[in-house]
Amino acid sequence: MKLVIYGTDTCKDCVDAKALLDAKGIRYLFLEFSDSIGNLKRFLKIRDTNPMFDAVKEKGGVGVPLFVLEDGTMTFDVNEVISKIENA
């Protein structure tokens, strides 16, 4: 199952999630947006149009890491991602 992660290496949660996925041997494409305007625009298009980000934005958060599975599932929870991939 393909996995895309939107985030930045300056985010501790993103770094920790990548380390956990690496330890489990789960492959992913990490779209770093602190050094790529294109990746940032792709992330903002999702964030600004998806209601799953409303609570995050209300609290002043960014909403990363954002995990996107090939079936379209989006989540902020790395453990949910691991469970879905390991049980696929």
Automatic annotation (TrEMBL):
Record-linked InterPro entries: Glutaredoxin, Thioredoxin-like_sf
Q: Write down the superkingdom of origin.
A: Bacteria
Provide an example Pfam family for this protein.
Answer: Glutaredoxin
> Which residues does the UniProt record annotate as the domain Glutaredoxin?
4-32
Spell out the protein name for this chain: Glutaredoxin
Q: Which organism is it from?
A: Faecalimonas umbilicata
